[in-house]
């Protein structure tokens, strides 16, 4: 399986990092070794002094597909989950400055936290889905899928032009505003609506 992540998919987040607003989806990948499951501790890597949390809705692909049209994209997933796209922001800034790929800053071990999934039918309108991240009990990120620049179905259409989607592939759909650094002993909890999707400690 592969992990595909969308960058800069929420206006306020693109602005908080002083990025241009994209005119087409920006995507990058993480390897399967980046997955962190089962609410395990996230060990902050020593190569960065500025690891940021980014809470994101996650789509799990349930059938093989290539060049999928947006109007059929909903047939390729039936669950939505929540995860964290951990990012070594200091390394990412250096890489962007040099025009280099982002992998060092994005694809490191345990950088893709994955919580639970909820069936689509239980969630109702997927284009109006509220989700949030609490750090030490305080809401630090509050997002809604209605604020995505590119919808889930548009993202699937776009990615599948370039990359075949396979069963079990994950798409992290971008983070809303409010990203920030994670520190040792921080307690992170993620929610879709009121439903807790993950709950872990940084170490
Ligand atoms: Mg992200």
Mind explaining what this structure looks like?
- The structure is a single chain.
- Helices cover 17% and strands 35% of the residues.
- It is built from five helices and 14 strands.
- It has helices at residues 11-16, 89-98, 103-106, 120-123, 152-162, and strands spanning 3-7, 26-30, 35-36, 51-53, 55-61, 77-85, 87-88, 112-119, 130-135, 138-144, 170-172, 180-181, 187-192, 195-201.
- The strands form three sheets. Strands 2-1-11-5-6-8-3 form a seven-stranded mixed sheet.
- Strand 13 (187-192) and strand 14 (195-201) form a beta hairpin.
- The protein is globular, with a radius of gyration of 16 Å.
- The mean pLDDT is 96.
- It binds magnesium ion (MG).
- The site of magnesium ion (MG) has 7 residues, from strand 1.
- Residues 5, 7, 54, 56, 85, 174-175 line the site of magnesium ion (MG).
Blueprint of the fold:
Elements: E1 3-7, H1 11-16, E2 26-30, E3 35-36, E4 51-53, E5 55-61, E6 77-85, E7 87-88, H2 89-98, H3 103-106, E8 112-119, H4 120-123, E9 130-135, E10 138-144, H5 152-162, E11 170-172, E12 180-181, E13 187-192, E14 195-201
Parallel strand pairs: 1-11, 3-8
Antiparallel strand pairs: 1-2, 4-7, 4-12, 5-6, 5-11, 6-8, 9-10, 9-13, 13-14
Percent of residues in beta strands: 35-45%
Rg over alpha carbons: 16 Å
Q: Whole-number average pLDDT?
A: 96
- Give the number of domains: 1
Given the C-alpha coordinates, what overall shape results? globular
Query: Which CATH-level-2 architecture?
Result: Alpha-Beta Complex
Tally of DSSP β-strands: 14
At the fold tier of CATH, the topology name is Fumarylacetoacetate hydrolase, domain 2
Strand order of the largest sheet: 2-1-11-5-6-8-3
SSE ordering:
EHEEEEEEHHEHEEHEEEE
CATH homologous superfamily - what is it? Fumarylacetoacetase-like, C-terminal domain
